[in-house]
Amino acid sequence: MSVPDYMQCAEDHQTLLVVVQPIGIVPEESFFRIYKRIAAVSQVNVRDSQRVLYIRYRHHYPPENNEWGDFQTHRKVVGLITITDCSSAKDWPQTFEKFHLQKEMYGSTLYDSRLFVFGLQGEIAEQPRTDVAFYPSYDECETVEKRIEDFIESLFIVLESKRLDRATDKSGDKIPLLCVPFEKKDFVGLDTDSRHYKKRCQGRMRKHVGDLCLQAGMLQDSLVHYHMAVELLRSVNDFLWLGAALEGLCSASVIYHYPGGTGGKVGSRRAQGGSLSAEAGNRHRPGALTSNGINADTSAEIGRAKNCLSPEDIIDKYKEAISYYGKYKNAGVIELEACVKAVRVLAIQKRSMEASEFLQNAVYINLRQLSEEEKIQRYSILSELYERIGFHRKSAFFKRIAAMQCAAPSIPEPGWRACYKLLLETLPGYSLSLDPKDFSKGTHRGWAAVQMRLLHELVYASRRMGNPALCVRHLSFLLQTMLDFLSDQEKKDVTQSLESYTAKCPGTMEFITLPDGLKLPPVPFTKLPIVRSVKLLNLPTSLRPHKMKSLLGQNVSTKSPFIYSPIIAHSRGEERNKKIDFQWVQGDVCEVQLMVYNPMPFELRVENMGLLTTGVEFESLPAALSLPAESGLYPVTLVGVPQTTGQITVNGYHTSVFGVFSDCLLDNLPGVKTNGCTVEVIPALPRLQISTSLPRSAHTLQPSSGDEISTNVSVQLYNGETQQLIIKLENIGTEPLEKLEVTAKTVNTKEKLYGDFLSWKLEDTLSQFPLKPGKIATFTVNIKVKLDFSCQENLLQDLSDDGISVSGLPLSSPFRQVVKPRVETKPINPQESSKVGDFSHVKTLEAILNFKYSGGPGHVEGYYRNLSLGLHIEVEPSVFFTRVSTLPATSTRQCHLLLDVFNSTEHELTISARNNEDLILHAGECQRMAIQVDKFNFESFPESPTDGTQFANAKQLEEERQQAKGLEINSKLDIWEASVEGVLNQLVLEHLQLAPLQWGPILRNSDPSLLSALPIKTKLTPNSSICHVNHPQLTC
């Protein structure tokens, strides 16, 4: 026997072998549909008996194996069922002839046969026949199962007659010698009358009768015959048949101990049927008789105590039988099948190590030169058996060998599909799964080197199958899951191969369904690049939405009467873990920052990288980046535009790397830090862009509030100069600009300002509103710089000490000029210079213009935006009032104000005073000017803290009074926008103030000629509350 049956199990020894074959041309689908119905009748209860017959069906059986039927009767084909298609009566003779030819192939062993004819109707089909059954079609054959049962009963009749015939002790008759095919030539010329020969014949026949009893359902009788055969054959050293007798004894004992079977599905079917052997059913029935009249109680006791082997003895006898088989080269198939049967028994006994020894022996059994198909079958069965005993990696090893045999070079047309299918079945044995989620958490399981080899073989098999999509999927899986175990060179090789495959078939995120129904999940490249953190970014300061204060409380729920609830606080705390405390705006570009890392030893090009979101319609704007080799953490900003309002959740990102498109979800990224994934999108707001007539400033303002300045401009002005700032307001958004508020704030300055620093008229700009998208409005701001013009250094001290009386000067010539040297020509010591003042010092002023604007749907919901413009003004000194004094005038209501004016610029200046001639000052020149002014009445200013409760203290009140007086004097002098407020001291102010008492003549007659004779009445009037005079009347 040359073809092993790897599906053999111990209980097959009690089965009758029936071959089911087609005759002529029969559709394969129709044949196997009938075959399955026939095979369903696998056990039949014998009439008038408690015995059960078990049938084993095969649709293909080598005739040479049938020659070993005397050695083990379950290998003998005892029944033949043929199926044919015959549509006309003309074809019937030829069909029937083929049936006879088929019977002749197994004629020497057949007990009975049947022919099922489909499609033939008429006179021939109506003739009653026992060996032929006619059916109109494959769908109209309800009696197939009944025909099979009748056929099995006919087999039992023949079997029982043969058993009785062989079991009868005919001492006078000569017992024939049963032989296996290769023994016949060895027994030629032997002495058939010798005692040794007769014992051999008796032992072999006794073993043969034991086989027949086992097939006939007489388990206890078969045990008795096997024991007798073992004793006889052991005495004559007939090792081959002794092994067969021992194996039969093991099979019967297995059937007794394990009525459910050892062959997997077949065994489970028998257990479900519930029909055991007659002896097993009568084990506890006193007085039951078997067919040969032996008391069942006695036989059962014998079987339990002596004849039936224990589970441990079964394995020992199997080992002994296999050792005897090993002595014969031609019994390799018998030895291999015995090993397989023993392993199945050991698997039920959960004795894995002993089972592995049997399997290891089966691996090294040398058979004839096997075909590639037989090798595949052999390694597949070995793999299945190793799987049953729990040796998963060993099982995967042999299944992989079977897969390689499917594509052996000696095969003209390699079966790459079968190879691929077997390779997939090896994955669990090597702790390998095709789902990348199994590799995202925990430590790596299995041998990475073996797993990579297997994945490479899957890629190669996929390529030979002509399926590039499978190649891409397996290569992607290899790169994603085995990245940490690949060398630098292997990484380069794998990526090059992947790029070559994706050029033909890009990798997608779709499931790939294999022909057998297996679905391969997508493989996202979460490690190319590796993402360490994900952070949702707030909008730029100028674009961040703000809620109007009057509307802040509208969204607060008022359903609960309690001020505080721990349940609500707890739920809010959970929500805070995901939700972010800022908002995005519909229609504006939003940003998410990823910190990524390139683990590859070469530059990694990532294309089409964008965001994956849910909850709000979102337009992702893909980005492309190139990461250096082993770059370390590298920031990447992904952007997109929300198209609707509501809650938006960032679930992950998508990429295209090496031609593979990946959707990477944050839930599948272990160890990724995030500040939250959900943010609120509010309705659209307009976007305002400002541009000015001034150049941009290199100085960046840093306001104390922390707000960012969108634009910074700078300008240089002389102290006292005024300049207009023209600002263009452009609506660059998609919503109309409906509301605008402008405020100003001076920051970071210690200088004292006089007058209005920044002024504007907003009405002119608002007249251009609403401002449509793309339109521009203008806004004008007046910048007036008025700082302190005083100087502590007395440059003209000699003018008042030269002995000349200024009061003698005519009023029409108020000026005296003395040209002094420039400041830089004076001896300067840095320390002394800082004491007396530096005329070239440039002072800095900084201010912020804040634009609060809104419009569109966002304005309806109560949102607005802020845009800030920073002003950096460098103030250069122009003129200084180094000294101020007064001289009395001819009238008590007037006086002369003397000013020492110094030109600190490099230009010629003209100074104009009201009702006076212009004064020309050259660069670095200092002159004194006298201005006749009316004295002032300061009664309108607060005199005591009780009159000015808004001031903090008396000192602040006095400073305010000083400033107010200076403002009035400055407004009346109007000296080129240069203020004298800072140089007025208390003494000067007292000289400029009207006297508390005013006197003057009163003429009673208007005729001037009578002036010398008229009496003069003098009136004294107090002008201040500090003068305590009760209005006296003086007459002279």
Automatic annotation (TrEMBL):
PANTHER family with a match to the protein in the record: TRAFFICKING PROTEIN PARTICLE COMPLEX SUBUNIT 9
Species, as recorded: Strix occidentalis caurina (northern spotted owl)
Domain Trs120/TRAPPC9 N-terminal, residue spans: 186-259
Example of a GO cellular component annotation carried by this entry: trans-Golgi network
Domain Trs120/TRAPPC9 third Ig-like, first and last residues per copy: 888-964
Domain Trs120/TRAPPC9 first Ig-like: 531-659
Compartment list: Golgi apparatus
Protein name according to UniProt: Trafficking protein particle complex 9
Major location category of this protein: Golgi
TM region positions: none
